[in-house]
Specification:
- The chain has helices at 2-13, 22-33, 40-64, 66-71, 79-82, 87-108, 110-129, 136-156, 163-182, 186-192, 197-201, 203-227, 232-251, 260-285.
- It is globular and about 55 Å long.
- The protein is mainly α.
- The protein has one domain: Tetracycline Repressor, domain 2, CATH 1.10.357.140.
- The longest helix has 26 residues, at 260-285.
- Helices cover 79% and strands 0% of the residues.
- It is built from 14 helices and no strands.
């Protein structure tokens, strides 16, 4: 019974997609560890804070999009849309997840605790951006892109301009593949009067914008090499990441959107994990 409920809530928030941002945050922890000691307890609270933040954000997104998810063929089988999870349960889930974030942030220090509430507001606000701007993908990238910065602050207690490169990499990476993912909903978004780059400018233009954003991702990751004085191992991983980004955009074509799920989950998961191992392996061997 409990296992089934866990699976249901995991399906609700697509918990497996946590793998997109978590490796970036852990990479930030590794980079910070070069100057500041990282304890196991600190790492635990960072991971728990991330899980709480993402769960709260996804739960709120499901609540905000409740009426749309019920009538969108792509989302109509989600637990909240089918009635498996009611609105009161969804609100409770959001509240508990938010509490997990705030408590975890408090365990990481006063500054993290203070920043946790504005972070929640930013994450929640994303769910409304698709009502009024086609640039909602960029706001999503910005919101999720705060993960490496948050992890850095949790370890160092301050902001370093260099970590903003990793934040920019994650922001453009998330925004880029969110645009690809939104190509599936062009017709629905236009009918429902929701905003997205594919719905406003068409799939061809959306794919070009996504390519530009992922080029910026690569540039940001390359600049990290210089900013943190990393080695050749990092560059080797970065070469592989660039090939996967190219493959992702080769797979998704205007007339072949059936490959979006492969590009969205499998390739993006691999890219995120490789970014973590690029930093981990380079630092370990060096």
């Amino acid at each position: 019974m409990w296992l089934n409920q866990i699976r249901t809530y995991g399906h609700l928030i697509k918990f497996s997609h946590t793998i997109f941002a978590l490796p970036f945050a852990l990479a930030a922890v590794l980079l910070a560890h070069r100057q500041y000691p990282v304890t196991w307890s600190g790492l635990f609270w960072i991971i728990l804070a991330m899980a709480g933040a993402r769960s709260a954000a996804m739960g709120f997104n499901r609540l905000a999009d409740y009426k749309y998810d019920k009538i969108n063929p792509r989302t109509s089988n989600r637990p909240h849309a089918t009635g498996q999870i009611g609105k009161p349960s969804l609100i409770l889930f959001i509240s508990l997840s938010s509490a997990v974030l705030i408590i975890s942030a408090g365990m990481l220090g006063r500054l993290c605790l203070i920043l946790s509430v504005p972070l929640l507001l930013i994450l929640f606000f994303y769910s409304f951006t698709k009502r009024f701007t086609a640039y909602c993908h960029l706001f999503l990238g910005f919101a999720i892109g705060l993960a490496p910065l948050g992890a850095w602050i949790a370890i160092t207690g301050a902001i370093d301009a260099r970590i903003l490169l990793l934040t920019t990499a994650l922001m453009t990476y998330i925004a880029g593949f969110d645009i690809l993912y939104a190509c599936q909903d062009v017709d629905f978004d236009r009918e429902a009067k929701l905003f997205s780059i594919p719905a406003r400018w068409g799939i061809d233009s959306a794919l070009r914008i996504s390519s530009i954003l992922h080029t910026l991702t690569f540039i940001s990751l390359l600049l990290i090499y210089f900013a943190f004085n990393l080695g050749s191992i990092y560059l080797a991983f970065l070469s592989l990441i660039s090939l996967l980004l190219i493959l992702e955009h080769k797979l998704v074509q205007p007339n072949h959107l059936d490959k979006i799920n492969i590009a969205f989950f499998h390739l993006n998961s691999a890219i995120s994990v490789l970014i973590f191992f690029a930093v981990f392996t380079d630092m370990w061997i060096s």
